[in-house]
Amino acid sequence: MTHSDRGTDPLAPSYTEVPITKINPHIPHPARIYDYLLGGKDNFAADRKAAEALIEVSPGTREGVRAHRAFLGRAVRHLAAEAGITQFLDVGTGIPSQDNTHTIAQGAAPEARVAYVDNDPIVLVHGRALLTGDPAGMTAMIEADLRQPEKILADPAVRQVIDFTRPVAVILAGVMHFITDQEDPYGLVEQLKAAVPSGSYLLLSHITLDFADQVRREDFTKPYDNSSAPMVPRTHDETLRFFEGWDLVDPGLVEVVTWRPDPTEYQEQIPGGHAWAYGGLAIKP
Predict the structure, then answer these.
(1) What angle do CA 101, 102, 103 make, to 5 degrees?
(2) Are the C-beta atoms of residues 74 and 134 closer than 8 Å to each other?
(3) Which domain holds residue 35?
(4) DSSP state of 278
(5) Does residue 99 share a domain with residue 46?
(6) Residue 270 per-residue DSSP state
(7) Do 71 and 10 share a structural domain?
């Protein structure tokens, strides 16, 4: 896809290695919406329109997304630096941005191995840049869909990076709210949990409307109605269910901004005061 292929959107990204038929710039995509909210450039006009509609409903959306991302960084740093985890299976990773899982993990444990999994062609193209991690470790980007965990677990590339006889951190950051109830979100997570041994961790974050009584669910999810994946906010109890059978690490399942905040980390003021997302980390007994 060259500059001349970018249609009427002069700010659209250029993807030289992905067949144009696999990318529809007119349909908002969660990964590109997220990229825009993080300040990235890998998005189209349709994605920016959907993102701005979210901001209109919730003025703190942009800051909340950044707080969500910061939670992921703190949790990965804890796993690599304090919990001794050196294997990470990051499913639904999204378009690479600053402070990716492998960057943080290998900063604490150079030998850390990270398998990124996503089913989006745009993410896969940008994921090639992730293969420049620490030479002492290993990083790979695998094309697979969270809705088919058995294929993720059987993928030869995943097996090359991850030794499933040793503890693994399964990362599902900001992805389960794109899986509808009809797609059996809890069953999908249970398959991933069952595949890893005792001492493994589940890192999960999820969008919620628990802090937004004034917002109607249909207004919040509407920007995603015409996207490639719907938005399904869940309550604290519904999110907690993903960790069933595992032991939550202190402070438990909490709003992402209150999960082990780092006093040295820049704390953005979030309009409305809430990030509208839960985050938690649990260990398999």
Answers:
(1) 95
(2) no
(3) 3-57
(4) E
(5) no
(6) P
(7) no
Return d(Cα 64, Cα 57) in angstroms, integer: 13
Number of compact structural domains in the chain: 2
Residue recorded with tokens 């850390």: 112
The pTM of the full predicted model, rounded to 2 decimals, is 0.81
DSSP string, 223-260: GGTTSSS------HHHHHGGGTTSEEPTT-SEEGGGSS
Quick one: 130 and 151 in the same domain? yes
- Tens digit of pLDDT at every position of the chain (285 positions): 333 333 445 444 443 444 434 667 777 777 777 777 777 777 788 888 877 877 777 666 767 778 888 899 999 999 999 999 999 999 998 777 767 899 999 999 999 999 999 887 777 777 766 666 778 889 988 989 999 999 999 999 999 999 999 999 999 998 999 899 999 999 999 999 999 999 999 999 999 988 876 566 655 555 555 555 677 999 999 999 999 999 999 999 999 999 999 877 756 666 565 678 899 999 999
